[in-house]
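> call design_seq(struct)
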């Protein structure tokens, strides 16, 4: 015990330094996303995250959007607990056979207009899990997909850029 206490006094911390993320880029994309949501919806964007069978890596990046560093809610965007309150389903992972029905039911429970954004390579085509006996495939095999954010996993800024691209695409398609 004494040895451990001494080591903790003389050793450097094991944590890494804080990331030097481009906070200005994040703030600009976030503000643009907030403006686009208000233009298209007249209010902020509500997002329901759905894990269809991921390894949790994509979830960690999505959860990071809510932490004190990225602080997504400063742009008026929010994650909601129910698909009935959501505009966007943010889906990760290959769709496992066990999650297929849950994904379909979540999609059907989301009111129109609704959009599906897939996050991570697995959600696109099964990624490194493609071909597994337990996996149906990409999210597009089960529900229609509006936009894909590539990466394994994509960083929070990329996820935010994907949401912005979605709203810009939706706005340009609206007569
Ligand atoms: S894309 Fe990568 S991080 Fe995301 S669920 Fe698949 S393996 Fe995990």
């Amino acid at each position: 015990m004494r040895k451990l206490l001494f080591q903790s006094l003389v050793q450097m911390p094991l944590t890494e330094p804080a990331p030097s993320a481009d906070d200005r880029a994040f703030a600009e994309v976030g503000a643009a996303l907030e403006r686009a949501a208000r233009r298209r919806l007249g209010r902020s964007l509500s997002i329901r995250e759905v894990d269809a069978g991921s390894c949790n890596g994509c979830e960690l990046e999505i959860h990071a959007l809510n932490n004190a560093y990225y602080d997504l809610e400063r742009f008026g965007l929010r994650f909601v607990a129910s698909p009935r309150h959501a505009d966007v389903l943010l889906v990760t992972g290959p769709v496992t056979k066990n999650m297929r029905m849950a994904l379909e039911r979540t999609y059907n429970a989301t009111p129109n207009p609704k959009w599906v954004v897939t996050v991570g390579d697995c959600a696109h085509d099964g990624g490194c899990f493609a071909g597994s006996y337990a996996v149906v495939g990409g999210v597009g095999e089960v529900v229609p997909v509006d936009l894909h954010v590539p990466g394994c996993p994509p960083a929070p800024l990329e996820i935010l850029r994907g949401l912005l691209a979605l709203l810009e695409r939706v706005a340009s398609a609206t007569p």
